[in-house]
Task: structure prediction
Amino acid sequence: MTEERSATLHRMVLPDHVCPFGVRAKEMLEEHGFQVDDHHLTTRDEVEAFKDEHGLTTTPLVFIGEERIGGCDDLRAYLAQQ
Result:
């Protein structure tokens, strides 16, 4: 039996802009067999509050289990090591 792998993704999805790095992070996770809990940040205020709360300058932010992975480039490096 295979172990189900899950990840949590927080990404910017505004009415006039969808962050391409968030889209790519979701694609990478799914390509590697992760079930993705996809959280959309839907207003500029929500995006800014989330970045302040987590000490970020950009989104997305990925967690695998309880481990904070980081953004799209961090996720790419993490998955390359797996």
About this structure: The chain is about 40% helix and 35% strand. Residues 20-31 form the longest helix (12 residues).
